[in-house]
Each structure stands twice: as structure tokens, then as C-alpha cells.
Amino acid sequence: MNLKNAVPLAILCLGLLFSHAAAAGSLVIGTISDESVKETRIFLPFAEYLAAQLQEEGITAGEVRIARNIAHMAELLSRGEVDVFVDSPLVSLAVRARCGSRLVARRWKKGVAEYRSVVFVRRDSGIQSLEDLKGRVIAFEEAFSSSGYILPRHSIATQGVQLAAMSGPRAERPADATGYVFSGDDENTIEWVLRGLVDAGAMSLRGLKRRAGDDFGSLEVLLETESIPRHVVSVSPGTTAAFSSALQAALVSMDQGNEGRKVLESFERTTKFDAIPDQTLDMLDEFEKPVTALIGGN
């Protein structure tokens, strides 16, 4: 063989080899958390199940990768180190804005397809509108909570209410804005409102009804947000349309067999996955810019 022709041929063969090797390998499922051991234990059976369903796509194993924050997850997706990202829709939108990931399915986490958040006060507080919260304090759960912070804060902002961060519920209250603090937990939020430590709280409507119990009658809802998916599944920006379709088919069919239902149950009592309705996708597209501005790359 002419050596002049052999070199390009060898390069072509190596290129084909590495291309095939890149197509085969692990399916890496990603999420954002500061509890990597706990999250890995939750996500690994799910990743391994999907890997088994995607063998014809060159997948041989399932793995889990935990990101520190939104920016880190966007970086992992961009580099192809994470293939599939599962999280709340608002966090997923912030990640998508940074890396171009694509939403492919809706997760019915704990049997819930969608949820809405509320802002609530004590019924005897005399507060009748969001405007009445000026100079008062509202408690959110934590900065990464979609239902307990991102969604209600976005809805409050659309009503023209100005919010100002406070160091704690007993700190000096802003005169020309509504002060806000983080309670760290939905139960704390309810307790702080009932005790008068803060004037209002925010969380999912379903969570408020469940956690408040007999005290629910003592509370009044000032604002209900729009309904959004409980959780969504995204794929990395480099994912092919064929692989996305195969992944979506594997997800949607999980609840149709015994093994899939067992894995779903272990995956935080997920009921099923389905396609995201077009109307919901349109709404999420509208949310992307303001939500990304709100939570940035944290």
C-alpha cells in the first residue's frame, strides 16, 4: 500500500473507531444537590433502568452526576458529561438559558403532574392584598426552591411589588418595600406566619394544605400562581433527535411494565412520565427570561 494514502486511511479508521466509542457508553443522569450520597442513591436505579432500555442506542451502563449549582450543571451538559437532567422546570429553564439544553418530558413526582404556589397570611392579620405587604415581611423557603421561592417571587414581581432581602425576621423592615427572609423549610414558614414572626409566607398550595392541617382555616391566600410541571426532564444540547425520541419513549413507557413501575416507585414515588403539553411549553418559554434574571447562575 502507498504510505501516502495509508496515513489518511488510518486517520479515517481511528476517527470511525472513536466516533463509535463515543456513541457507546454510559447514560449519565444529572441533578443539582448538596447531598450527593443521598441523591445518587435515589437516582442510580432510575439511571440503570433507562440504560437497559437504551442498549440499541449504544448505552451500556447508567451513572449519576451531581452538580453544585445551576452554572455547574450547565457546564456539565455543555461538555456532554451529563446526558439527562431532571429537576424542577424553573431551575431547568435557568440551565437551558446557559447551555441550550432541551425539555423532553414531564415527571409526575409523587403522583403530581403540576402544582401552583401561593402567598398566604393569617386570616386575622388585616392584610388583604399584596400591596398591604409593603413595610412587612414574607418568608420563602430557600433560594433554590421553585415552589417556595422562585415561582411565587416571580408572580409577586409581576404585580409590581418591590422585595428587599433581610438578614432575619427580626431585622429592621424596609419602609418602601416588602422584606423577605428564608425560613429553610415549609413547616418553618407556616409556623412563622402563625406565630406572627413574619407577616406572610409562600409555598405550594398542596404543601400548605397538607402541612398546615387544622391550622389551614386560620390562614388566607393572597395570591395563587399559574400551574407549572412538578418536574421536567432535559437533554444535553448535543443530543441527537433520534436519541431524544428513544429516551422519551423509554420514559413514557415506564409505567406500563412491572419493572418500570417498581423503579418509578423507588424514584421518589414517581407515577409516570409523559410529554409536556404544548401550552405548558409555551408558558415555560415565557418564564425563561424573567426566571433566569431572578436566580442567575447560582
UniProtKB/TrEMBL annotation:
Signal peptide: 1-24
Stretches assigned to coiled coil: none
Keywords assigned by UniProt, alphabetized: Signal
One of the Pfam families matching this protein, by short name: Phosphonate-bd
Superkingdom of this protein's organism: Bacteria
This protein's record includes keyword Signal: yes
Xref: PANTHER family: PHOSPHONATES-BINDING PERIPLASMIC PROTEIN
Record protein name field: Phosphate/phosphite/phosphonate ABC transporter substrate-binding protein
Source organism: Leisingera daeponensis
